[in-house]
Amino acid sequence: MKYYDKLVFELSKEGRCGFSLPLNSFPSGAELPAALRRESALELPEVSEPDVVRHYTNLSQMNFGVDTGFYPLGSCTMKYNPKINEEVAALQGFAGLHPLMHAGLTKGALRVYQEMNKALAAITGMYTFTFDPCAGAHGELTGLMIMRQYHMMRGDLGRTKVIVPDSAHGTNPASAAVCGLEVVEVKSLENGRIDVEALKPLLGPDIAGIMMTNPNTLGLFETQIEEIASLVHGCGGLLYYDGANMNPLMGVARPGDMGFDIMHLNLHKTFSTPHGGGGPGSGPVGVAKHLEDCIPDIRVSGFHGNFGVILRAYAYILALGRDHIRKVGQYAVLSANYIKESLKDVYKLPIEGVCKHEFVFDGLVNDGAREGVPGATTLDVAKRLLDYGFHAPTIYFPLLFHQALMIEPTETESKETIDAFIEVMRKIAAEAAVDPEILHGAPHCTPISRPDETAAARNPILKYQDA
Ligand SMILES: *Cc1c(COP(=O)(O)O)cnc(C)c1O
């Protein structure tokens, strides 16, 4: 039996102790005034040190992380994060800084911002970056504020709409709405790229710009960027680049050279900061030279964003260097295409051809459906993967395919790991064809099986005690 089968949280036993504090060493008369002192002892769990260590170590094993296994969550770039980055971020000279310290004492940190600005400008072809935004979506909002500011400064006040492709990450239309812009959707073609003919009639004097993701969320390189850029610029709009998927392009191609005016990067994805739990992140925004003065004066975050994440990214960029950074994308692309080609006879591949860092399947070729037994779905496949020790890919996104299963292996996985994943994916497909019921009940081997997601969101259990 595993520790978590018991889910023991009440470990306290009277008199047990896991710490020792020195006796009060204040000179007499220096104690707290009587009115501020506790009247009774603080009620803390009484546990020994090994019990505490085991409790938290075992709890950490109930979850899945990049440090415990392969995590091919599409669009999220769950690459391995080198531990040296953590050491750099923890250096006392950095970790002990306070943003209100005298500037003379923070020169090292300012130098890091400066060097990072140069490095990201070199990687992206943008002119300069602001490091204030604390996530990708936060960067999008900041970038759209810059876009709006640009039009306002020119007295061009009628530009209230922003074009977003139907394949976009959900944060794109959300950020546009928060920025007070109206979202106009442009459809994708059968081949997964933006439909330029459908774009043309949308352009006009009310368009502030377009938000594009490249490679897009299907893992495909947008092949008509130059034409789109000249069309959008031609109508007076700007081009925003969602650079959360920059992983395959670093050192190979630059949004600045493609004609983009504004972009954000996800340092926590592409530049290796652990981000499975939702943060902290960093979404620096880069602009072309003509937009330098449009970066908002008001801070979009307290002080200068998440400095620890910026430090990790700095360590990562320096470790790779100019010559090796392009290998990141090359290996990521190779891994994705290898998995795609190895599985496309058992999982439906809606769009053939070379992908970039990720690709999307549309469910199983044979889902095992028969009289009285529904077939295995993408959700079933994802849950079954957990039984075999792999994190699930992203599912039901992008919305273009009903059974979307989006796989992004990243460059940091060995061939052995990728082969093991392919073997398990084939095994699951074979299980589905024979008996989809095995998959409907999965996962069978995890601490918690399949939660009711609606109930979990409506009635979250926020403490370990019942009700
Ligand atoms: C992850 C992602 C975002 C949002 O980034 P957050 O840091 O989660 O806010 C935006 N666009 C794309 C394409 C992404 O993959």
What tags apply to this protein structure?
alpha/beta, Aspartate Aminotransferase, domain 2, seven-stranded mixed sheet, 9% strand
Task: Assign the CATH topology of the largest domain.
Answer: Aspartate Aminotransferase, domain 2
What is the helix content?
Answer: 25-40%
What's the total number of strands?
10
Reading the helices and strands in chain order gives HHHHHEHEHEHEHEHEHEHEHEEHHH
> Which hetero ligands occur in this complex?
pyridoxal-5'-phosphate
Anisotropy-based shape: globular
What is the distance, rounded to the nearest whole angstrom, between the alpha carbons of the first and last residues?
26 Å
Structural class, by secondary structure, is: alpha/beta
Which range does the strand content fall in?
5-15%
CATH class of the largest domain: Alpha Beta
The stretches of 5 or more residues where confidence is low (pLDDT under 50) are none
Question: What is the CATH architecture term of the largest domain?
Answer: 3-Layer(aba) Sandwich
The biggest sheet amounts to: 7 strands, mixed
Instruction: Supply the number of structural domains.
Output: 3
Strand order of the largest sheet: 1-7-6-5-4-2-3
